[in-house]
From TrEMBL:
Protein name: Thioredoxin
Top-level taxon of origin: Archaea
Stretches assigned to the Thioredoxin domain: 127-224
InterPro entries named in the record: Thioredoxin-like_sf (IPR036249), Thioredoxin_domain (IPR013766)
Gene source species: Natronomonas moolapensis (strain DSM 18674 / CECT 7526 / JCM 14361 / 8.8.11)
SUPFAM superfamilies: Thioredoxin-like (SSF52833)
């Protein structure tokens, strides 16, 4: 960080802000590639699970507590500033993770920078990935479809990935299979009440016919597919 940077004034340049995040162990910079560190991602994941799906009233109260504003004003301020839940989660994780003294406005700027640094997707490379913008089109396009839900730092997900070849074979021919990042697809999870990762949701005609929560063996998935698709 440059000598003339003044964190107390909240006027760090983007380059100085990135330097600060690197020195605090939030990001790793390698050959001009910037990624979130595993340690910070683990911290962020804890806050994500705690706040990303809380009711609006609880979310507004948390924002009120952090920013020191009236709870009744929180909703308007969130809309006015365009603050997303992902940015708020990043701010909470940052508050917990960093040791340096940074004013709230600077930490908020850092949080926005963090949300722009996309961590690696937990969806296996061999699985077609969909998101909140594309899942409806995917379900409309395929009469029979299976959507798998994945998450980072998830031992059951890793176990399911180890069985991926057998799991892929468990889906009958004609069933389109896709995967989603469970942390980044809040609309999908809310609509289909997904509360665990991994999960396997079986669809027919756009309707979720079966939802397997947590780790399931390829044999369990094959049995569920046989029931849903009358195979």
């Amino acid at each position: 960080m440059s000598d003339n940077a003044n964190p107390a004034a909240g006027t760090l340049s983007p380059a100085e802000r990135l330097d600060a995040l690197e020195s605090e162990g939030v990001v790793s910079v390698d050959d001009e590639a910037v990624t979130l560190t595993l340690e910070f991602e683990s911290t962020r994941g804890i806050y994500h699970d705690s706040y990303i799906d809380v009711p609006e009233a609880e979310y507004h109260q948390a924002v009120s507590d952090v920013f020191g504003i009236d709870p009744d004003e929180a909703a308007d301020r969130i809309e006015e500033l365009g603050v997303t839940r992902e940015q708020f989660v990043a701010l909470l994780a940052l508050n917990s993770h960093v040791d340096g003294e940074y004013p709230l406005v600077e930490r908020a700027n850092m949080a926005m920078m963090i949300t722009d640094i996309a961590p690696p997707s937990p969806v296996p490379e061999d699985v077609t990935e969909i998101d909140d913008d594309s899942f409806e089109a995917f379900l409309e396009e395929h009469d029979r479809a299976a959507v798998t839900v994945w998450k980072r730092f998830c031992d059951p997900c890793d176990r399911m990935k180890a069985d991926l070849g057998e799991t892929a074979s468990a889906f009958p021919e004609g069933v389109a299979v896709a995967g989603i990042d469970g942390e980044a697809t809040t609309e999908f999870r809310r609509r289909f009440e997904v509360e665990a990762a991994p999960s396997v949701l079986l669809f027919e005609g756009g309707e979720c016919r079966e939802s397997l929560r947590g780790y399931h063996s390829p044999e369990d998935i094959a049995d569920a597919c046989a029931d849903v698709y009358d195979e």
